[in-house]
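Quick question, first post here. What does this chain look like in 3D?
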Amino acid sequence: MLALLPGGCGKGQKSAATPSDASEENTVNGSDENESIGDIEVTTEDMTLLRDYDGCSNQKYAWYIVRNNDHNTSGCDGSIAIERYNAYYANLDISDTDDRVMYLTFDCGYENGYTEQILDVLAAHGAKACFFVTQTFIRDNPELVIRMKEEGHLVGNHTVTHPSMPDISIEEQKEELNECAQYMKEVTGYDMDPYFRPPSGEYSERVLQFADDMGYKTIFWSIAYLDYDINNQPGTEYVISHFDKYHHSGAIILMHNVSESNANALDTVLTNMEQEGYTFPLLDEMFEK
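> Answer (accepted):
Ran it through. Tokens below.
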């Protein structure tokens, strides 16, 4: 039987797709919920078997934002209409007249001694975050990942080896996402949450479509700064002033857990933003409509 995928890129038929191709596992969270395509019932991962990814552009882009200081949503890379692929960089459905919210996210490639401090500050403020972790981070710090989940945070997929996703094959992309998620389950007992951050912010239509087919929402950002170089930190005061200057409601914040500046500034940043009326909910709340 032939199957035709609705929406997205690469919508053509995949003649080899049959019910026998179906995997029994849901990639992201182990769910056994199925989706019907024609007469075929498929799980989330099966969508990747029915998509013709050769029909998706693999031109590589690097996510960027255009800052403004009027506290409206940052401009962004408009190369692709990312929302077509369940990809987001801010909550665009919220206005400054609504309750002010920011979504905190941290990229965690490895540990540099600050993640526990970050978690302590978040707990003190009742703030929630999404931590995007690599397999290496999980391997070396399972107790921190368990603490993240126990304290109500989200843990998203940042791949196994942090590759540029457009530079690798679909099969390799599947391994990067699946193996990271499976490893987290094995080591911590927790399922990975269905959020994906492309390493280095590098993406293509093919990468976004594939992540969507795997059941992930791709999360970019609307506020960020150079904080990942541990030998060239921006400084505590820079981080504080950056938030004071560029905060906006619905912002998705990109921070790196290895940053001493972030760790030392976070308590003041959250205090200042709370005084501006902000709360810090889970990304999940963006999609509860």
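The domain at 65-287 is CATH 3.20.20.370 (TIM Barrel).
The first strand starts at residue 35 and ends at 37.
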